[in-house]
Design brief:
There is one protein chain. Helix content is about 50%, strand content about 10%. By secondary structure, it is α/β, with parallel strands linked by helices. Helix 1 links the parallel strand 1 and strand 2. The chain is elongated, with a radius of gyration of 25 Å.
Length: about 350
């Protein structure tokens, strides 16, 4: 491949390393899967150069920027790239495939490496993500896994994957369990763009001729919004409902959400959002249990008074084939029970 050939995102497998030359904050917001961050300007430097460009002059911004870029490139050459062999081939991108990635490409080529620049940079990759969603989602042969809160749907998905089935774990990508109490402790949700990037990265690995299992979700998982095309595809897909007993669900919730007892104040604050639906007296009782770390009665009432009624009202409205769903009764949500349940779900395809 010529040094002057435009390199597209579909060519990235031809390179040893994918390098994101943008600032750490830009990288954290979203980046191409597999990329490492080697910024030519850090966050503070990027702001400084932008301010000088607008308030002083483009020339002064470029002069100071060149000095900063040179210093950062020197550090990368001494540290990050110090062990790279002579035949190393890195692919480099920035926001639009402009000066930042171009500067790095120039210096790495001077060393002798076959460095190349991703045409269009991250902006082009973002267009690629949206185009892939539009193209791939309508082809997905989805099987939607449903069940009331506490039915271990996500764990069943993981068990299906371990048994060789294809799954899409939306809650895993969103880093959220999808329910009122679904925020994971100490773990921030990704940006919307990063979520979509992870989703497309997964879609591109799937055999579109085979069934793909996915958990039935509303349009939002925490603060992440699902692509409308995917929501519509789920609404039209065949459903498999796990009909777990209330006892097994409560046991599972007490294991899966045990960490909620570690921060009574945070749990009480989350429950406060239910006052409009459940009333002050009911929520005050729940908050009292939260303060006492009495999760068993709390979860039992949340199931009976909040989650289950919402589930029963929403399923027929959300899934067009709900009346023809496959139904699997279950009274055991232990690890072994979940493995057996996954086998039963797989047999419905």
């Amino acid at each position: 491949m010529s040094h002057r050939s435009p390199v597209r995102i579909t060519d990235k497998h031809q390179f040893h390393t994918l390098i994101d030359a943008r600032s750490p904050a830009e990288f954290a917001l979203d980046h191409i899967p597999g990329a490492i961050n080697c910024p030519v300007l850090d966050d503070e430097e990027r702001v400084t150069i932008g301010t000088i460009y607008k308030q002083v002059s483009p020339f002064e911004a470029k002069r100071l920027g060149a000095a900063m870029v040179s210093a950062n490139l020197a550090r990368h050459l001494r540290e990050t790239f110090a062990d790279k062999p002579a035949d190393w081939k890195p692919l480099i991108y920035c926001w639009r495939g402009g000066l930042r990635s171009g500067s790095m490409v120039t210096w790495l080529r001077l060393v002798g490496w076959d460095a190349q620049q991703l045409a269009g940079g991250y902006k082009y990759f973002r267009h690629h993500v949206m185009a892939q969603l539009e193209q791939l989602v309508p082809q997905l042969q989805l099987r939607v896994l449903c069940g009331a809160t506490g039915s271990a749907k996500t764990r069943v998905l993981h068990a299906l994957a371990a048994q060789g089935e294809q799954v899409i774990d939306l809650e895993g990508f969103a880093r959220h369990k999808g329910s009122l109490l679904g925020q994971l402790p100490g773990i921030a949700q990704p940006s919307q763009k990063a979520f979509e990037t992870q989703l497309v990265d997964r879609l591109e690995t799937l055999d579109l001729a085979r069934p793909i299992y996915i958990e039935g979700e509303s349009q939002r998982i925490g603060r992440i919004t699902l692509p409308l095309a995917l929501v519509e595809r789920m609404r039209d897909a065949p459903c498999v409902e796990i009909e777990a007993t209330a006892e097994s669900r409560l046991d599972y919730l007490l294991r899966d959400y045990a960490y909620l007892g570690d921060d009574a104040q945070a749990l009480s604050a989350q429950l406060d959002r239910l006052k409009e639906l459940q009333g002050n007296v009911c929520v005050a009782r729940w908050q009292g249990w939260a303060q006492e770390n009495a999760l068993a009665p709390l979860f039992a009432e949340l199931m009976a008074l909040h989650y289950d009624p919402q589930y029963e009202r929403s399923q027929a409205r959300h899934f067009r084939g709900w009346s023809e769903r496959a139904r699997i009764a279950c009274a055991d949500l232990s690890d072994a029970g979940i493995a057996r349940l996954a086998q039963q779900v797989g047999a419905t395809a």
